[in-house]
Amino acid sequence: DLKSKESRGALIVLEGLDRCGKTSQSSRLVSSLEGHGHSVELWRFPDRTTGVGQMISSYLANQTQLDDHTIHLLFSANRWEKRSLMESKLRSGTTLILDRYSYSGVAFSVAKGLDIEWCKAPEKGLLAPDLVFYLDIQPEKAAERGGYGGERYEQLEFQKKVSQQYQMMRDQSWEIVDASLPMEEIEKQLSGLVLHSVELCHNGRPLSQLWP
Ligand code: 2DT
């Protein structure tokens, strides 16, 4: 059951707007943890490799149109299809670094106008992260970084709405990181906190479920 006291890996989530740097930071974290001798994997959501993930990917590429509720549930289903593997990895002692998770699911859909409680409901029962980082950047600054790839949500006006939703959702447990700092500085902040969290999990911190 979820209360088992065996040594387990930590579930770490990185969230933020497009171009906030979370993808680079996720892979730096993996290297850093490996360097400390930990077993660690980098996962990202959406996971575009599954059947559901391919539907999401073509929606994001504007190749298909879907009702806002429908795509919301597909993003959630894409997490549910990975849930049992996620739990077994964690229980076997592997730490998982997630590039986006349920918070993206809620922030992006609520930014479109969907009801927040409706958006949160299908996430209930997924594994709760041990640590959530929010890489904080002004939408305008993120847009200046360039490299929006032309996917559906990569537009300044929409990113501003997503940013507001993240601000609404975040609580005291989140680690807010200034994403405009130099990469090395951010990396230092993140890896210190992650190593601490990994230690807590190894020492028996119980796994819990959304929404805590
Ligand atoms: P990437 O550019 O990081 O691949 O994200 N999104 C993501 C949602 O709308 N709901 C979700 O549940 C998740 C995980 C964020 C692709 C885009 O999909 C959005 C950006």
TrEMBL record:
Family: Belongs to the thymidylate kinase family.
Protein keywords: ATP-binding, Kinase, Nucleotide biosynthesis, Nucleotide-binding, Transferase
GO biological process, one term: dTTP biosynthetic process
EC numbers, comma separated: 2.7.4.9
Gene Ontology cellular-component terms listed: cytosol; mitochondrion; nucleus
Molecular function in Gene Ontology: ATP binding; dTMP kinase activity; nucleoside diphosphate kinase activity
Official protein name in the record: Thymidylate kinase
Pathway: Pyrimidine metabolism; dTTP biosynthesis
Boundaries of every Thymidylate kinase-like domain copy: 14-189
